[in-house]
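so im writing up the methods section and need the Rpn family recombination-promoting nuclease/putative transposase record in one place, dumping it here so i stop losing it
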Amino acid sequence: MQDGVTKIIINSQVSTEGQSEDLKALAKLMNNKPVKLNKHFDYAQRRIKEINEDPETREKIMLYETRMLEREQAAGKAGYEQGKVDSAKIILENQLNNGRTLEQATEFVRNLKLISDKELEKVVAMYK
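--- predicted struct ---
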């Protein structure tokens, strides 16, 4: 994704053969297995246990995750809709560059049903 965020995906269900001790321990931790490696993993296991035992904290985390998912879905939908508007603009311009009148080009794009008539009118207004 081109969102400027570095995402690391770890499949904790596959063999960790040949991986570092830290990565092996992380995979065990992700699979809810006890880890005895260093203070960082001790801390992580302690915090996981505290969170799991506190219903209020668990609820906050679930709510946070739900809101993050909703935000991602809304952004994806907005990007998708903008992409359709951008495509309609390009098609309209191509029609105009190929000798069609603005009315003919508009009708051509309208018939594709990429965007609503209201959105199309906004696009067409830029060419008047």
